[in-house]
Structures are given as C-alpha cells and as structure tokens.
Design brief:
This is 4'-phosphopantetheinyl transferase. By secondary structure, the chain is an alpha+beta fold. The protein contains six helices and ten strands; from the N terminus they run βαααβββββαααββββ. It folds into two domains: about 5-110, Ribosomal Protein L22, Chain A; about 115-220, Ribosomal Protein L22, Chain A (Alpha-Beta Complex). β4 and β5 form a beta hairpin.
C-alpha cells in the first residue's frame, strides 16, 4: 500500500489495513496511559483508529532509531507532538491507518493523508476546489484516475499537515492551488502570505482501494 517512493529517502513509515466494520482496541490498550487519555471519552471506533495510527507511529519511530515507547501527545489543533529531532504525520480512514516520520536534519515538515479511492460525495468538490483545480480533474480522469476529486481532497489535506507545523496557522482549502500530475506527483502552490516556502511538493498513489498523498518540505 505504502512504499518508499512516496517519501524522502530518510523517512520511515508503517501502515496497517483493517477489516471494514471491525474496531479492534488491542493497539489502543497497548498505548501509554497519557496517550489513552487523549481519546478516553471517545467511542470505540475513534479509539481504535487512534490506537492503530499511534501504533504505526511508534513502529516508524523505532525504525528510525527512537524510543518507540515515548508517548505522542497533542499540540495546537491536535498536531502530534513528536520527539525532538523528528517530524511526522499520521492518517486513518476506514480500513487503513498509517504514519510516517523523518529526521529534522533533512526534512522540515511532512504530511500524509489517506482516503478511500471513491469519488467525493455530491457538492463537496465545489467547497474545496479552486477553478483551475476543477479544470485539471478532467485531465486526470482521462489518464484513468476515476476518483480525481478525492485525490485533490487528499492532496490538500496532506498539504495542510505539512503547512501547520511550519507556521502554526490554519490553511483553508483555497489557501493553496494544487497542480496534480498524472505521473504520481503534485505541487501545492501557497497563496497566503507570509509563507515559509512558496510551494510544497507532494506524491500520490492509488492502490488497494485507497488514495494516499504525501507532502514534504526538505532543507535546501
């Protein structure tokens, strides 16, 4: 589902696929007590998603050489608080959870988002897309991307996940214009100012029923 081509070479990642409609709490119950308190009052589905994504994050951290038992807590707007020297991102959707981490010596920020490989619900596209982005969806569909609108949504979500750690500011859907290429790459041009970078690079893949988009800002 995920492979190294989606990320910078220094990154490490982990993912799991789950059975649709089932919510195992095994990974949640194995979390650090401080992590469990973050969703203690949530329903089982939410706690299962949270536990699975955190399990992926801890596994990726251990693969990067960090202590996989250190709790990953939440900062402003729910941003994960990674160990010093690490940037990372998590995602979860029905049937899929994943996390990616990278050392700050090579990567300034990284984002990851996954969605089902299905068209967006009716009327959602108009609320997230800029005119030029809508125009390019026809090109992607001609290239065989049947869920091009969902890919755009996924790319925008992953862009925000790279943007926020750099700025501590919200980025609305119209705050970036995403140029998605059929070759599995995209560029998110930032339209708000001030911005730490003029654009954020991304990569995407559709496989096994899911759309995955990653973004990252590397040091020059």
């Amino acid at each position: 589902m995920l492979d190294p081509s989606l990320f910078p070479s220094s990154a490490r990642f982990c993912f799991i696929q789950t059975v649709h409609g089932e919510s195992s709490l095994n990974n949640f119950e194995a979390l650090h007590p401080l992590e469990k308190t973050l969703v203690a009052n949530s329903v089982d589905v939410r706690r299962a998603e949270f536990g699975d994504a955190r399990w992926c994050a801890h596994t990726a951290l251990a693969d990067l050489g960090y202590d996989g038992d250190v709790p990953i807590l939440k900062g402003e707007r729910g941003m994960p608080l990674w160990p010093e020297g690490v940037v990372g991102s998590m995602t979860h959707t029905e049937g899929f959870r994943a996390a990616v981490v990278a050392p700050t010596r090579s990567v300034r920020s990284i984002g990851l988002d996954a969605e089902p490989a299905e068209p967006l619900p009716e009327n959602v596209l108009e609320s997230i897309a800029r005119p030029a982005e809508i125009d390019q969806l026809a090109v992607l569909r001609d290239a065989g991307v049947h869920c091009a609108d969902r890919l755009l949504f996924c790319a925008k979500e992953s862009t925000y996940k790279s943007w926020f750690p750099l700025t501590q500011r919200f980025l609305d859907f119209d705050g970036a214009e995403v140029d998605i290429r059929p070759d599995g790459t995209f560029v998110s041009y930032l339209l708000v100012r001030p911005a730490p970078v003029p654009f954020i690079n991304g990569r995407w893949k559709i496989k096994d029923g899911f759309v995955v988009a990653s973004t990252f800002v590397e040091w020059l």
